[in-house]
Amino acid sequence: MSVKVHVERLIHDALRALAQQGLLPEDALPATIPVETPKRAEHGDFATSICLQLAKAARKNPRELATALSAKLEGAEGVASIEIAGPGFVNVRLTIDTWLTALASATREGARFGRSQAGLGRRVLVEYVSANPTGPMHVGHGRGAVIGDVLSNLLDWAGYRVEREYYENDVGNQMNKLTRSVLFRARELLGLETGPVPEDCYPGAYLIPVAEAARAALGDGIAHVAPEDEPALTRVRDFARDRLVGEIRGDLERLGVRHETWFREHTLHDSGAVSQAAAELEARGHVYTDDSGKRWFRSTDFGDDEDRVVVRENGVPTYFAADIAYHKHKMDRGYDCAIDVWGADHHGYIPRVRASIAALGYDVKRFEVLLCQFVTLVENGQPVRMGKRSGNFETLRDLLDEVGVDATRFGFVMRSADAQFEFDLALAKSQSMENPVYYVQYGHARLAQILAKAAELGHAPPSDGADLRAIVLPEELGLIKKAMEWPDVVRAAADQRAPHFVVFYLQELIGLFHGYYTKYKATEKVVSDDAAKTAARLVLCQGLKTVIGNGLAVLGVSAPERMYFTE
RNA sequence: GCGCGUGUAGCUCAGAUGGAUAGAGCGGCGGCCUCCGAAGCCGUAGGCCACAGGUUCGAAUCCUGUCACGCGCACCA
To answer: pLDDT tens-digit profile of A131-185?
Structure first.
């Protein structure tokens, strides 16, 4: 249990006791007590404004409530002092021993420190990336991939059972377009085409090697496939799809992103799930047919702006029909929550999907969408276009080549998902502390080197039962308190679907450490002649390294033991 | 036109459930190495939190309206 959660419980219990005494109405107690870590140290280790909030319901003066609450908290486990401040804040200060004990226990937990059971093992499906298999991944996909991946890590840490899924849109016009494009490139390779790429084909040069491979695998005959030769078209289409999906997988692997399941849209068609879902929607009375024979889902009954076509005039289901089936499938698989990570350009699609889930009788609260706004690549303030001659998309691969995995991942989660922001290539490329990812990694390396140096001199952090009371400097206590927030950061970031919390937290924590280090490196070094101080400080360093390392692990960014750069 | 998102320091952005004197990084300016990593640190300047109303003990945060920017408004996926 984190220190903060401990305090939350103390306050909660105290309030319940007050309620039993009749000082407040029982039903006025909120499920979660607002407890914050004050910005100002004078306000204690923790502060709550609960008395201000309960005052009205209790028909009491907030300070009067605060007085009653503080009387209950006085002497509670770990509490050093309580004070009432301002209009009725209650500030809680804990004993130093409480903090030292927490540090010792965190250091023991090591790579598991920060994990909790808060999610109670509830099952969550996170679907992310889901780029169409018609070309390479671009930068926008990369952001969604990293955000989805880090969110999944956070949920896992917070005690949820997480599955990561990729939805392959391997059906529809785009696949036909892809097929046409590959066939065109194949003819081009054989000299049968010399003109520009037709309008109804993808222009990207990345399809030339695909066509070459297709020729090698399927023979030169593919240059002569007739538009109505379905079996041949299917062979080409499947080949191109597999090839492009393979490239996407390769890019994701390089980015450190892995999905447990790759869900293919066509399986929904093959199994009849699409028509089944449409039929069920119809059976429930939410579908009507118009004069031309189109079938419409009356999504307006569930909050959508307009009704949506589910089956076209020619009997072919729309993409949306498949998506209804897909989300129904997710619901039927029994997840407590299904989170879709989408690009912001798809936001208009949310109401209809939500409507379909509601219309099929599921609780819409089980469906969530995390939107990712676009990233603008800039270099020294100037917008960048990364695509080579091949086209105007900016590929993820180019970015990875340019700045590496760590800076790419860190850069994509350092801002809130629903804010557009500028990704500065020059900054991400620079191997300096101006680069936030290096700043954090450098801190980890510095801690590692201190511990290594200590080991060299024969000091190891005491593994158990160490007396940490040699830790007395205010900066050291501040570091402990900050480091002990890590489990709360994980929970908050998971609950709020806000991976960027982790980045900000790590920057703050390591910033405190750099300050501490510089201030005392001449006077109060970690490794000194004082055995008690040395031992205690090594535990502190070990604990900090653990937290930074765990944070970087959640982000999927490497945590180097050393970072010497040549020159 | 309608919907969603955004508007906070010169720049890029944080500010969870409304709370105490609005934060960080970069950039400016001024300082700190007889060093466990100066690739670091400290100090300082810089704000009508887009604008106008409202809600209440209290609003950057919630509500309404206005303006600006981005995205979307398919029988494409």
So the answer is: 889 989 988 899 999 999 999 999 999 999 999 999 999 998 899 999 999 999 9
The ipTM value here is: 0.91
CA of A514 to C1' of B37 (A): 11
What is the per-residue pLDDT across A277-333, written as a single tens digit (0 to 9) for each? 999 999 999 999 999 999 999 999 998 989 999 999 999 999 999 999 999 999 999
- Within chain A, how many helices (H) and strands (E) appear? 19, 15
Distance CA A558, CA A552 (A): 6
% of chain A at pLDDT higher than 70:
97
Q: Are A544 and A106 in contact (CB under 8 A)?
A: no
Residues 494-513 of A with CB under 7 A from strand B: 496, 498, 500-501, 504, 507, 511
For tokens 């297709």, the residue is A214
Residue carrying the six token digits 């002649």: A529
Nearest nucleotide from residue A422 CA, by C1' atom: B12
With CA of A498 and C1' of each nucleotide, the nearest comes out as B16
Verify if strand B has an atom below 7 Å from the CB of A369. no
In this complex, the answer to whether residue A230 has its CB under 7 A from any atom of chain B, a nucleic strand, is: no
Q: Quote the tokens at residue A534.
A: 């040395």
Q: Answer whether any strand B atom is within 7 A of the Cβ of A294.
A: yes
Task: Report the candidate in A248, A264, A253, A259 with the shortest Cα–Cα distance to residue A137.
Answer: A248
> Of all nucleotides in the shown strands, which has a C1' nearest the CA of A346?
B72
Full set of structural domains in chain A with CATH:
3-94 (3.30.1360.70), 128-260+373-429 (3.40.50.620), 436-555 (1.10.730.10)
